[in-house]
Amino acid sequence: MISYEFDYTRPDTVEAALDLLDDDSKILAGGHSLIPALKLRLSAPGKLIDIARIPSLKGIKMDGNELVIGAAATHSDILESDLIKQHLPMFAEGAALIGDPMIRHKGTLGGSLAHADPSADWPAMVLAAEGTVVVQSKTGTRSISSDDFFTGFYSTALESGEIITEIRFPIPAEGTKMTYQKFVQPASRFAIVGCAALRHPDGTARVAFTGVADAPFRDTAVENAVGDWSEEALEAAVALTAQGMEFNVDHYASETYRHHLARVYCRKALKALLY
Amino acid sequence: MSNKYIGQSVRRTEDKRYITGKGRYTDDIKLVGMTHASFVRSPYAHARVISIDLSAAQNMPGVVAIFTGDDIKATGIVGVPTGWQVNFKNGDTMKEPPHPLLIATGSTSKHIGDPVAVVIAETYAAAVDASEAVEVEWEELDAVTDPFKAAQEGAALVHADAPGNLAFDWELGNPLSEVDEAIAQSAHVTSLEFVNQRMIPNAIEPRAYIGHYEEHIDKYTLYTSTQNPHLIRLLMCAFVLGLPEHKVRVLGPDVGGGFGSKIFHYTEEALVTWASKQINRPIKWTETRSEAFMLDAHGRDHVTKAEMGFDADGNVQALRIKTYANLGAYLSTFAPAVPTYLHGTLLQGLYTTPKIHIDLCGMFTHTVAVDAYRGAGRPEATYLLERLMDLAALEMGKDPVQLRKQNFIPAFNGVSEPGYQTQVALQYDSGNYQGVLDRGVEMLGYENFRQMQREAAQNGKLLGVGFSTYVEACGIAPSAVVGALGARAGLYESAQVRVQPTGKVSVYSGSHSHGQGHETTFAQVVADKLGIPMEDVDIIHGDSDAVAFGMGTYGSRSLAVGGSAIVKSIEKVLEKGAKIAAHKLECAEGDLEYAEGKWTVKGTDQSVSFGDVALTAYVPHVYPQGLEPGLDFSSFYDPANFTYPFGCHIAVVEVDTETGKVTLKRFIAVDDVGNVVNPMIVDGQIHGGLAQGIGQALLEGAIYDENGQLINGSYMDYAMPRADDLPMFELDRQETPCPHNPLGVKGAGEAGCIGSTPAVVNAVIDALWSGGHPVKDIRMPLTPERVWRAMQS
């Protein structure tokens, strides 16, 4: 297909992008979700504002006791970053499971979070790693905890006129373990179920899922149940997986099976953090 | 003659343009004054057109013309035909309702995407914009998409004049009473109800057409992404538009794959050709990927009950089949032949089964047409037989390899030993079935496998092995035979070998190449037969004005039929060349021998080269009296029989007991496709076929909802096999020559797709039995959830 007609601009700064941003425009980053929507005419913006090459949105850096990933960092940037490998190895592990090399070189972390596909990989990892989404508008910047960011089916706490600029993560303490485990949908290679889990040195955990329900979520019932990480405790935690959720249903996974997979992937993730 | 090229893995000469992006596909062609088409399509699988309002669309910028079904109806054009007639059991002609180019007001759409109007505009974007502005009022009606449900009382009706949605009923084999009797007396009957699901072909190049009428020469040119330009010309001129064939040129430029889906004559081809004359400008239409999913003829889609009876020793006694085959809403070009003469006729398999009967209903449904898709009927037959064979072994506690061996037709070469006459009409040409099975089992290391399987099961891992031995029918086929079976065309091939004055050779073939490597394989044959360098040979195809005629490329027929036509023409070239050579060497023709590109007087060093003879043929100053100048011959080759490749495919899988996910660990394929001209190309064909067959087993399949909406018509939803879904294939070959064509070749294009699917499913079933889950069937594709559920029961 072919999209409706639109204007295309590529500003050099976030400020210039914000000046252009209005109700008739869409932010373009990697474009791997937006461009297909445009071509199928499911989305009809009058203007695309391409932020993928704004220098301040690129890069991965340390800032005090935080690790900062620019919103326009690509999956591949994250996969190859030494800082990520050192401090957030789950992100390198997860990036390698996204799509294929072409997608990884185009798609961005900020784009994935803003789009909030219920099967996307990053949201679960950002939730588990306690990310904070920093957004900028003409009136200033604000920080949104990942716990508050994902609000529903393809919806987030982003307001109109805001652009994600970076995602900040507390640098995990020495001895923190983390993993992302994914059951892949064979066509899209998105997650049918993805589980990101992080184990602090004190034994507390953060466990988040994607693909399971209409939005990614932290599973605090599981987190609270891991206790001493004994086999019994973990099985008890696994049994609590995604309780009370309304499950996604498609031709790859019914409600029953998706719930089963969530438990299986919860177990895989927790067990990966044992040693 | 020389032996320089045949049998060698010569690199494909066509690949340079393909892999450097220099291929020239229909969509690459831009003509002066060219317009663009976009279709207004039914959003419903079954809905009546109440009214069409063009007023808004007509005033959109760039719109050149809009045509509706009413415009087409007014011309008297009825629609596109099918090329094959199957009769009801009672002898009545099958139901063949018209397939209009566009739906007229008051008529109904019969599948999702059925077109109601076409908008032609200066740009594609303008055409799409305006097509959205065409307002159609629809009355949505009930739809049926499943062939079995379509046969039930009260099912929504696709065509008013096809009661019960039955296009035809059909049977083949021994009398049913004899088969019933043999089944009743069998010591063991393995019974299986299954669905051979609907496949979407997914050629990488979507269909694309340019219709170009030129008033000043009163001639039409159609550029089309097709597997058979001449067949399209014949069907379109003679049966759709009523055009004079000599005033229509059909070009099939580079084509990005077809897998069957580009054999058929589609409504859009005829429509752009017709409309081009109405507006006196060229019109291009390239379908979107979404349209390709919806509209390119699909494959398979059988609902089957199969029963195989055995005596107490495991000898097959009888086979009884009842199948509902989905034909879609309209009968596509080969659609009636696929479930009947390309499927029912293969049910002997490689076994000596004495009694066979198939009863089949060809069903109309509110879905796009189902027609030939890589293998076309033979994969369905192989799936049926080979699933039964492995399941019977499990049920009877026998070894699946031994069970096959004891039932195999013994080896026969078709020369000193006769061909094998089946119970289902065909006579196999040559075969050595135990040879391929023995080799496959050897490659597998079968004696160790069962031990490994037991150990794996004890460690919570399920391993399974699945076998599939197949025989198929290629090189379709003697015209007289297919004519008797209902084909409305012959199935020969033509070839012209034009020796240029300098001894270079241009070969004009009716076999279109769209990925198969004809330009290399055919050139290898020509170069060796003439004893000249391959570089001196050019293969020309895909132009109805250049090539005399052609039946096209499908059914793995190109080398067996098209290649044989080339050989016939070469023989004529050499026969005439010998006359010229004899004159030049002042000897009798009988004193000459031809080798390495020259005629030599036997026992002497006197010779004349092929190039010298060619030049003399065109500069005939000193020349045999009465002989015509020139060295240029055409031939038509009509084969004596189908060819019958066969092979053995073995899959080894591991099933994850937690998720049901199947991992294909090994895949062994030992194929016998007769003599091999280019082993690398044959391997490539096998690889591609295996990927598609494995794709059917594990990943692919069209899904319609209750209303006939295609719910997985995108690559986000429809899983195509990718490299990381597949193991490194382990291939070997056996070569049993075809006894009835000059090259001894059988065809390799579909073998991979025919043998592989049941091997994979059998392996999963075997794995589940080893884990204590004795299930008979899991519906394809074997998604993790389906396998997991099978392990829960």
UniProtKB/TrEMBL annotation, chain A:
<keyword id="KW-0274">FAD</keyword>
<feature type="domain" description="FAD-binding PCMH-type">
    <location>
        <begin position="1"/>
        <end position="174"/>
    </location>
</feature>
<dbReference type="InterPro" id="IPR002346">
    <property type="entry name" value="Mopterin_DH_FAD-bd"/>
</dbReference>
<dbReference type="InterPro" id="IPR005107">
    <property type="entry name" value="CO_DH_flav_C"/>
</dbReference>
<dbReference type="InterPro" id="IPR051312">
    <property type="entry name" value="Diverse_Substr_Oxidored"/>
</dbReference>
<protein>
    <submittedName>
        <fullName>Xanthine dehydrogenase family protein subunit M</fullName>
    </submittedName>
</protein>
<dbReference type="InterPro" id="IPR016166">
    <property type="entry name" value="FAD-bd_PCMH"/>
</dbReference>
<dbReference type="InterPro" id="IPR036683">
    <property type="entry name" value="CO_DH_flav_C_dom_sf"/>
</dbReference>
<dbReference type="InterPro" id="IPR036318">
    <property type="entry name" value="FAD-bd_PCMH-like_sf"/>
</dbReference>
<dbReference type="GO" id="GO:0071949">
    <property type="term" value="F:FAD binding"/>
</dbReference>
<dbReference type="Pfam" id="PF00941">
    <property type="entry name" value="FAD_binding_5"/>
</dbReference>
<keyword id="KW-0285">Flavoprotein</keyword>
<dbReference type="InterPro" id="IPR016169">
    <property type="entry name" value="FAD-bd_PCMH_sub2"/>
</dbReference>
<dbReference type="InterPro" id="IPR016167">
    <property type="entry name" value="FAD-bd_PCMH_sub1"/>
</dbReference>
<dbReference type="Pfam" id="PF03450">
    <property type="entry name" value="CO_deh_flav_C"/>
</dbReference>
<dbReference type="GO" id="GO:0016491">
    <property type="term" value="F:oxidoreductase activity"/>
</dbReference>
<keyword id="KW-0560">Oxidoreductase</keyword>
From TrEMBL, chain B:
<feature type="domain" description="Aldehyde oxidase/xanthine dehydrogenase a/b hammerhead">
    <location>
        <begin position="20"/>
        <end position="142"/>
    </location>
</feature>
<dbReference type="InterPro" id="IPR000674">
    <property type="entry name" value="Ald_Oxase/Xan_DH_a/b"/>
</dbReference>
<dbReference type="InterPro" id="IPR037165">
    <property type="entry name" value="AldOxase/xan_DH_Mopterin-bd_sf"/>
</dbReference>
<dbReference type="GO" id="GO:0016491">
    <property type="term" value="F:oxidoreductase activity"/>
</dbReference>
<protein>
    <submittedName>
        <fullName>Xanthine dehydrogenase family protein molybdopterin-binding subunit</fullName>
    </submittedName>
</protein>
<keyword id="KW-0560">Oxidoreductase</keyword>
<dbReference type="Pfam" id="PF20256">
    <property type="entry name" value="MoCoBD_2"/>
</dbReference>
<dbReference type="GO" id="GO:0005506">
    <property type="term" value="F:iron ion binding"/>
</dbReference>
<dbReference type="InterPro" id="IPR008274">
    <property type="entry name" value="AldOxase/xan_DH_MoCoBD1"/>
</dbReference>
<dbReference type="InterPro" id="IPR036856">
    <property type="entry name" value="Ald_Oxase/Xan_DH_a/b_sf"/>
</dbReference>
<dbReference type="Pfam" id="PF01315">
    <property type="entry name" value="Ald_Xan_dh_C"/>
</dbReference>
<keyword id="KW-0500">Molybdenum</keyword>
<dbReference type="InterPro" id="IPR016208">
    <property type="entry name" value="Ald_Oxase/xanthine_DH-like"/>
</dbReference>
<dbReference type="InterPro" id="IPR046867">
    <property type="entry name" value="AldOxase/xan_DH_MoCoBD2"/>
</dbReference>
<dbReference type="Pfam" id="PF02738">
    <property type="entry name" value="MoCoBD_1"/>
</dbReference>
